[in-house]
Design a protein that fits this description.
heterodimer, A: two-stranded antiparallel ribbon, 4 strands, globular, disordered N terminus, B: mainly alpha, 75% helix
Chain lengths: 614, 199
């Protein structure tokens, strides 16, 4: 007799009493019950509850965002006021800012770490880590992730990765300085830039841990979504948030390992003396390498095979959150639900075959480039479908302007503005002119940087009541929104003009060039607004932490009058396991808003006689 | 919590008909595949370009690697027999086959190590002034594969030890299936990599 026959017999016998989701099969093993006597460590530190892990990711993401934002404020001070000295910079940065002026090498480190932190630690870990963890089990009707243990490990690898990256700020030669893309040979040779010494080693170690974290998380998200949905929750009834997290996780699962292979070869080049990426290199007229024959372009291909899907890993969760929040607060079904899923799948698929549009000036065959142009421009189609659907969802809606709704509408605005310049840059003929200029900086900051942040903010304002059982303060949230929204446009819109005027990225002081000195006032303006917007994030930070303890208590189970399952838990702050009793059964899709004279119909409500449900 | 309910969070029952843990393993294998696709596509691109430029250094693959390939294939076979013995409830054959599989897995690593040593003897280095792309790739690709073997061996050893001290019924069939999936995977992976390297 095998274990499996015993198992099945048991299920048949007991399923009479329990819903299929219950765990009868364990009654022949020691039952692994929820421990009611959580210690501080098991509840807050080494938690296996997906909701607590989500909060860990969120708080870590916020800390990282403050650091990443601060770095950008610092280098914007240098860019806006390149000839002035600020005493506080020396106080803050010590020998990295002698006489209150940022050291050129440290300027590169600031830019590099800003990009690294924002892309990986905030908008991947902080955004996808938070909301995939928090919402997947709650919205599909599961007690937790498929493997709570791997989920916990996912956070702790993230934490380890964070600590290694943070420690690189404190090594004598400074953190990595070769740009967040860490192109060799710059990133491979300490002789090239100081940051390519110990700082770069720590960067690579940190990213390796980050990839492990991301894979553990992604495997769990995909497995959970495909295998643990409650009864009635077909794939075609999943909220768009879940679809977005699902596709995001698939992209991460398939692209992060390729970054790991790129990083591995770079580690060998740096430490063992291989020449995968390195060829004859002269610094100061001296050949500094014994080994030759590598190709730095090889690294670019491997890097961007991750790098491009990565921008969708950042933006897709935001798209999912925004779709959900827009529909709830417009009191209308999401327009084109299936088209939304189809377009996300199309974006996800295309993201793997457009990477070389980051490399139009790498010397590639123009014919190859033109193929990547066509593939890239095709992404405009699913993107436009999404924008159309968001606008159609808002159209004649009974809109509730909650803070989450404002950030979602802001997201749509930013996605349109930033997406349009993607059409310019996707064309190799125009990109060859504009590449490495501020036009590119403006484009990707609007379309994936600020937009993804808006998705993050929308998610936090919307699900805060479910996370902490309290409301955030709306007045502070409105101030936060308007300053951030208007400020973001004021920062990044002028950068398009600077870019078209040819202003290159990464330059330490562009006022010292005759060609760009007339752009100095614009840079000053951008820097001033950037610092103001950064400081105004304090409205969010204070609101977040203050509301956690002192916010207005949530009294009703479903404060936004939404349809999805997370609002059906027995307690406002769900237990570990989410539902104290049976997991609810789903009878309809999540977007029955303003249907048949009902403002909203939760997914758990069975179809009435003769009612057509999706 | 209501009375009479057991909420088992660690072992939620799959509602899709697919075992969630097995599914997760397959998802993990997909990521390993992508890792090796990344590294071997770099190898192929590099080799084609270098051959066109006449700078690709060919070298004779040490015989150890042919032996090790045979050993890893054999170990897949013995694991398959162990799994069959498990299904047939044949404890003695089960633990013997597990033990042989573990030993063959270890032997594979030893042979890889001896193969690398032979490479050094014939002047093929991982890094340094005398290293070449063909040699560096050989070490990195076979080394990355060996790391994945090591992970599989850890589980094989645990299972083997358990098989000798505990009854067969203490094993879950899922566990046996999952170790098998992984072990056959790293076997097939090596065959792919080896063909690529000797071609």
């Amino acid at each position: 007799m095998s274990a499996s026959t015993h198992h099945h017999g048991h299920v048949d016998q007991e399923s009479i009493y329990h819903d299929a989701v219950w765990h009868e099969h364990n009654s022949h093993e020691p039952a692994n019950q929820h421990d009611h006597h959580d210690t501080f460590f098991s509840k807050y530190i080494f938690s296996m509850d997906h909701k607590m892990i989500a909060k860990q990711f969120l708080v870590s993401g916020i800390v990282w965002a403050v650091i990443g934002g601060l770095l950008s404020a610092l280098f914007r001070i240098q860019l806006g006021y390149p000839d002035e000295h600020f005493a506080f910079l020396q106080t803050l940065l010590g020998h990295w800012a002698p006489d209150g002026k940022i050291d050129p090498q440290f300027y590169l480190a600031l830019v590099t770490m800003h990009g690294t932190i924002m892309v990986f630690f905030v908008l991947t870990g902080g955004l996808s880590g938070t909301f995939s963890n928090f919402l997947i089990p709650l919205q599909i009707g599961a007690r937790d992730m498929a493997s709570p243990l791997l989920n916990m490990l996912s956070y702790w690898f993230f934490f380890l990765s964070s600590m290694v990256m943070l420690s690189s700020f404190f090594v004598a030669s400074g953190p990595a300085s070769a740009g967040w893309t860490v192109y060799p040979p710059l990133s491979a040779l300490p002789e090239a830039v100081k940051g390519s010494g110990a700082g770069q080693s720590l960067w690579l170690i940190s990213i390796a841990f980050f990839i492990v974290s991301s894979l553990l998380g992604g495997i769990n998200y995909i497995t959970t979504i495909l295998n643990l949905r409650t009864k009635g929750m077909s794939m075609a009834r999943m909220p768009l948030t879940i679809w977005a997290f699902f596709i995001t996780a698939i992209l991460g699962l398939l692209s992060f390992p390729v970054l790991l292979s790129a990083a591995l070869l770079l580690i060998f080049d740096r430490s063992i003396g291989t020449s995968f990426y390195l060829n004859e290199i002269y610094i100061g007229g001296r050949a500094i390498l014994d080994q030759t024959g590598g190709s730095s372009i090889l690294y670019q291909h491997l890097f961007w095979f991750l790098g491009h899907p990565e921008v969708y890993i950042v933006i897709l969760p935001a798209m999912g959150i925004v779709s959900e929040v827009l529909s709830i607060n417009a009191r209308k079904p999401i327009f084109g639900y299936k088209a939304m899923i189809g377009s996300m799948l199309a974006i996800g698929g295309l993201s793997f075959i457009v990477w070389a549009h980051h490399m139009f000036v790498s010397g590639m065959n123009p014919f190859v480039g033109s193929i990547f142009v066509v593939l890239t421009l095709i992404i405009a189609v699913p993107s436009a479908v999404k924008v159309f659907n968001w606008l159609a969802t808002l159209w004649r809606g009974n809109i509730r302007f909650t803070p989450a709704m404002l950030f979602s509408i802001g997201f749509v605005s930013l996605f349109i503005s930033g997406g349009l310049t993607g059409l310019f840059l996707g064309n190799s003929t125009i990109d060859i002119e504009l590449t490495k200029t501020y036009f590119v900086v403006a484009h990707f900051h609007i379309v994936m940087g600020v937009a993804a942040f808006f998705g993050l903010f929308a998610g936090v304002y919307h699900w805060f009541p479910k996370m902490f059982g309290r409301h955030m303060n709306s007045t502070l949230a409105y101030v936060h929104f308007f300053v951030t929204f208007i400020g973001s446009y004021l920062i990044f819109w002028p950068m398009h003009y600077q870019g078209m005027a040819g202003l290159p990225r990464w330059y330490y002081n562009h006022n010292s060039y005759e060609s760009f000195s007339h752009l100095g006032d614009l840079s000053k303006f951008i820097s001033t607004v950037a610092v103001i917007v950064f400081i105004c994030q304090v409205f969010f930070i204070i609101n977040f932490f203050w509301s956690m303890y002192k916010g207005r208590k949530v009294t009703e189970a479903n404060p936004w009058e939404a349809n999805t399952l997370e609002w059906t838990t027995d307690e406002i702050l769900p237990i570990h396991g989410n539902w104290a009793g049976d997991i609810p059964t789903v009878h309809r899709w999540p977007y029955d808003y303003s249907k048949d004279d009902r403002e909203f119909i939760p997914q758990t409500e069975p179809a009435r006689e003769g009612e057509h449900v999706v | 919590m209501q009375k009479g309910y057991t909420i088992d969070i660690q072992n939620q029952e799959s509602t899709s008909g697919v075992d969630a843990k097995k599914f997760a393993l397959w998802a993990g294998l997909a990521s390993i595949v992508m890792f090796f696709i990344g590294i071997t596509s770099a190898f192929i691109v590099k080799k084609v370009a270098a051959q066109a430029a006449g700078s690709w250094k060919e070298f004779a693959i040490p015989t150890w690697f042919y032996f090790s390939t045979g050993v890893i294939v054999l170990s897949s076979l013995t694991y398959w027999m162990a799994a069959r013995a498990f299904k047939a409830n044949n404890q003695s054959q089960f633990k013997m086959m597990l033990l042989i599989t573990s030993l063959l897995g270890t032997l594979f690593l030893v042979m890889q190590y001896l193969g690398w040593g032979r490479l050094v003897e014939i002047g093929i280095y991982l890094g340094g002034a005398q290293s070449t792309a063909s040699g560096s790739f050989f070490y990195v690709i076979s080394g990355a594969h060996a790391a994945h073997i090591l992970g599989g061996l850890a589980f094989l050893y645990i299972a083997t030890i358990k098989a000798f001290i505990k009854p067969l019924s203490s094993f879950k069939s899922t566990t046996i299936d999952m170790i098998g999936t992984y072990w056959h995977f790293v076997d097939i992976l090596w065959i792919y990599l080896f063909i690529l390297l000797i071609y």
